[in-house]
Design a protein that fits this description.
Elements lengths: L1 H32 L1 H4 L3 E4 L2 E5 L36 H18 L22 E2 L1 H5 L2 H7 L6 H12 E2 L10 E3 H11 L4
Antiparallel strand pairs: 1-2, 3-5, 4-5
Helix pairs in contact: 6-7
């Protein structure tokens, strides 16, 4: 019986420590020191939330940069990949469809290869980034959709260059561009006609 009371005391102490005190401590630290990050890194414009830096969005309008494909149609609730293996016929079919779609809307020359992130969905289905190369391949389409003069391409290329985020900690991952931030900056610099 004594062992049972000791076990219950330990259980109660650990429940209070790990179930109440620790979460409260982490919440207070997060809200005071890392407010934006702990609340989803939301982007707010004119008192209206337009999205999160961390979650990819679907952009289908020809006047905007496209995000990479999503196996979950950009729905953050189920967050997940297609789980198709490299030998899957369904995966090969999706890649062919994504290649044809990206190629047709951006009119990519046959000599250029499309970056892989525009062909394959990410592991979470919510990756908000594309490579600088993928962004540059979309410039002609966007200029044409916005009825911009040929000279605007240089400014748009500069916009892409300035939007590049470096490798994390200087050595992890690849250079990338957040599509939502890029599209927001695009609207600021190039008006839609």
């Amino acid at each position: 019986m004594k062992t049972l009371f000791i076990s219950l005391k330990i259980f109660l102490v650990m429940t209070i420590l790990t179930g109440v005190i620790y979460p409260l401590f982490v919440t207070v630290i997060g809200q005071t020191l890392f407010y934006n990050h702990s609340n989803g890194s939301m982007i707010v414009i004119n008192n209206q939330t337009v999205g999160s830096e961390l979650i990819g969005q679907k952009f289908t309008d020809g006047q905007y940069f496209n995000s990479r494909p999503s196996a979950i149609d950009y729905n953050p609730m189920p967050s997940g990949a297609s789980n198709l293996s490299v030998t899957s016929k369904e995966l090969k079919l999706r890649v062919r469809r994504n290649t044809a779609a990206f190629d047709s809307i951006n009119q990519i020359p046959a000599s250029e290869s499309i970056p892989s992130e525009m062909l394959y969905a990410s592991g979470s289905g919510l990756d908000p980034h594309i490579s600088p190369q993928a962004a540059l391949m979309q410039v002609n389409r966007i200029c044409k959709s916005r009825h911009l003069p040929e000279a605007a391409k240089k400014r748009m290329n500069d916009l892409i260059t300035h939007s590049i985020e470096g490798r994390q900690f200087g050595f992890l991952g690849e250079e990338r561009i957040n599509v939502l931030k890029l599209n927001l900056e695009l609207d600021k610099q190039f008006t839609v006609r």
